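Here is the promised in-class demo. Please do not try to memorize the tokens; focus on the logic of going from shape to residues.
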């Protein structure tokens, strides 16, 4: 049966601080590159029917260090949620002016609604499944960002896009979506590499 391997990029300065990072194209930290090297060890020998990556350098760099840069295809659908005016701000900073604000529940001014991100995730799922030959067992790797991958997991199991709020996802973590018979399931979630 088909599997989707969700791989979140390694640490950046903004992921470390908790700042919402979408359009801002920042590199991995040294620690983020170390985590990507650990991903390479973890994924050693794993072949994928396709490798899709976000166009952002933090995802592409993680993909390359993990050993899949030469076979990866950019998929615009894997871009992180567009946070609009909240780009670069932490939830704590946003709540100074908007008490109780949540990315999952409140309007994203000049950005994307959670349902729009869900539609993008649905497209990624369709493209990933289409890359696996019919009637075969195969896997597709998706190198991307926390919120888009959380939303993608929610959509995989039939939840609305805001169901992504139920899944925590660390930097450099690996998760696997698959099937139990014909039912879509989460096989593994948030496999990290911290010692």
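The designed amino acids, position by position:
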């Amino acid at each position: 049966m088909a599997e989707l391997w969700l791989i979140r990029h390694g640490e950046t300065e903004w992921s470390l601080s908790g700042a919402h990072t979408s359009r801002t194209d920042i590199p991995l930290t040294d620690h983020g590159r170390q985590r990507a090297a650990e991903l390479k060890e973890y994924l050693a020998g794993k072949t994928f029917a396709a490798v899709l990556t976000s166009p952002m350098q933090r995802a592409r760099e993680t993909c390359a260090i993990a050993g899949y840069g030469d076979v990866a295809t950019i998929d615009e659908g894997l871009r992180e949620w567009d946070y609009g005016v909240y780009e670069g701000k932490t939830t704590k900073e946003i709540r100074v002016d908007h008490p109780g604000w949540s990315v999952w529940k409140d309007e994203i001014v000049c950005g994307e609604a959670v349902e729009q991100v869900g539609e993008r995730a649905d497209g990624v799922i369709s493209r990933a499944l289409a890359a696996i030959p019919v009637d075969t067992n195969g896997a597709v790797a998706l190198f991307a960002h926390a919120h888009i991958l959380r939303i993608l997991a929610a959509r995989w199991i039939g939840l609305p896009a805001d169901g992504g709020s139920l899944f925590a996802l660390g930097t450099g973590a690996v998760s696997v979506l698959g099937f139990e018979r014909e039912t879509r399931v989460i096989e593994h979630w948030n496999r990290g590499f911290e010692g």
